[in-house]
Fold this sequence. Notes:
The protein is mainly α and 89 residues long. It contains 6 helices and no strands. The protein has helices at 2-11, 13-23, 26-30, 35-42, 45-58, 64-88. Helix 1 packs across helix 2. The longest helix has 25 residues, at 64-88.
Amino acid sequence: MPCLVAIVALVFPRLVLVLIWLFSNYLGRAYETVIWPLLGFVFLPLTTLAYAWAINTNSSVDGWYLAVVVLAVLVDIGVIGGGRASRRR
């Protein structure tokens, strides 16, 4: 079951963010204000989920958790850049 949730989060990160926000306090424990998850929803949804996971699991972003957050940033930037490149063609 956790693998299925991870796959859904990779495919539909904004949907997962909305569901987490509606049904749990997971994002509230990771972020002190509402503005960061809101900006993350718009610009870097996978990074927002990875950071919330790192903070809720380890209470800091270091080591393996930092690698996961950096990978999420790279995936988010790649998705944004890929869309922009295909629009130019």
